[in-house]
Amino acid sequence: MAREELAAWLRLLLTPGVGNETARKLLAAFGLPQTVFSQSLTALQTVVGARIAEALQEIPDELEPALERLQTWLAQSDRHHLLTLGDARFPSALLQIADPPVLLYVLGDLEALSHPNKLAIVGSRNPTHQGATNAHQFAQALGQAGLCIVSGLALGVDGAAHEGALAAGARTIAVVGTGLDRVYPKRHLNLAHRIAERGALVSEYPLGTSPLPANFPQRNRIIAGLSQGTLVVEAALQSGSLITARMAAEQGREVFAIPGSIHAPQARGCHSLIRQGAKLVESAQDILEDLRLGAPATPEEGSTTEPPDDDLLDALGHDPVSLDALQARTGLDTATLQARLLELELDGWVGRLPGGLLQRTGQS
């Protein structure tokens, strides 16, 4: 893209009062941004109010630094991209949502955005051990079946979903709430690099944008919009994951939810979604059948998802439990109980939760 054209796109969104909706109105009325800025004040006022029309005739002070930063970033790698709303490479799925971004920054492989089968997996930033395991296992199984996994790079379920997709050798897309020259949270720096190698990092926010709280609910529409459906693994009643699910439903996309314990706060959002019509899923196959896609790959010979025959696992049940309660159920002395729990924990069948609680996990 020529410097003048690039500058016009940036200037459009840097103009005070011009957001995505106003920018789309101007583009629909006049065509390319360069044409917008060649219009008279009178012509602009037929589309936007006088205040915005006057602002469009002024060059924002931050335009030149933003342009220099963007050109430098684009020149750094052939895996750095800027897609405009009119670009043929712009994801067609996003054109179908009510509020598509005008600009989309991409770090990675553009082919990931055009992948025909994409599923969003979202959930709590503080999941239970079982919730994180479910996110990883569903993403891995669905990735093995050929799906591209979309999530938000956040701690918890998002990170587990990306990791599961990568473990399957599948593509994965992270839609972030910052500029692509930043990684948030910082502990996902290595994960972000691996996602860029196997898929793509995507943002509508200009380079240098900090992780502002308002950005994350806003980016959720892109997570939902890129995907054929959204799977919510764990979510509290007031959470960003429910925002993503609502946006998916509004966009006419499928919404799936994994049920959980009636005692777990992280399960209440999923239960609420199911009451509202989300599809209850217990396996990756449930999702594949609903989306009319193939079965996940068969596990390697010798692998198992069946728990060992262990009376302590039976006593644990599937809800979080305290050590005292477990001791009362089993009648085991403390030393024996701790030793057996340690063995199960090392084998991946038991996880420890905050507050000293224990929970049975899905598989080793």
Automatic annotation (TrEMBL):
Domain of life: Bacteria
Protein name per its UniProtKB record: DNA-protecting protein DprA
GO BP field: DNA-mediated transformation
Signal sequence extent: none
Xref: InterPro entries: DprA (IPR003488), DprA_WH (IPR041614), DrpA_SLOG (IPR057666), RuvA_2-like (IPR010994), WH-like_DNA-bd_sf (IPR036388)
Span of domain Smf/DprA SLOG: 82-291
Pfam families cross-referenced by the UniProt entry: DNA_processg_A (PF02481), WHD_DprA (PF17782)
Annotated source species: Hydrogenophaga aromaticivorans
